[in-house]
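Let us practice reading a record.
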Amino acid sequence: MNGASPVAIVTGGSGGIGLQTALALRAQGCTVYTLSRRGAETPGITHLRCDVSDEAAVRAAVDDVCAHAGRVDILINNAGFGISGAAEFTETAQAKRLLDVNLFGAVNCSRAVLPVMRAQGGGCIVNISSVAAPCAIPFQSWYSVSKAAVSTYSAALRNEVRPFGVRVCAVLPGDIRSDFTAARQKNMEGDDVYAGRIARSVAVMEHDEETGMNPADAGAYIARIALRRHPKPEYVIGGKYRVFTLLARLLPCRMKYWIIGLMYAR
């Protein structure tokens, strides 16, 4: 980079851990651009309106960054939202919209920056997954599906682009205090059929999030990972969540899902 500041793009950067990651990268000397559908003015950060599910809009935004900054060194694929409700009563169109943003938004952004990173000889792509990827949460089935897909996409992409000097990793946050909770699209249809279990499950999720990690701490952690020369394939944010994901891999499947059921499906 010839001493120039690293150039970073953070999607979903208008709030929550996206904004906090952008602020942390700026504090580390990066030139930071955020993408989101909402307007967001943050001193020292350039915001571009962009729906990450629109591939043409993503390409235009990346072209705009390159026209001004000349390169892209870091991409944080953070844009996403959640839906809750019984899988049986979730409309296919709603599930597809979730995947369009949470999974294909990351795919669109990665596809747009990869030619740039190849040409400049390297870069780093950090995809925000979730602890819900290895620990699928009942009544958040489609969110869990989307994040499991993000983790798998990250793992495959890492090996594909490694010869070009492009580093790829996934970060799995646990519960974070942010506007993600209020933005969740809640579908209570069928709660009578499920004997009130949907409402109880959502209440547990929201309590855990509202008492969860400070988003500034999560953002600082993600920024540090993005700036590492040799990141690991996967990181879990938070000590207790590292324990949970380790147990999820070690415990027999029946026991793992029995425990998750006690937490979220009673």
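A brief commentary: The mean pLDDT is 95.
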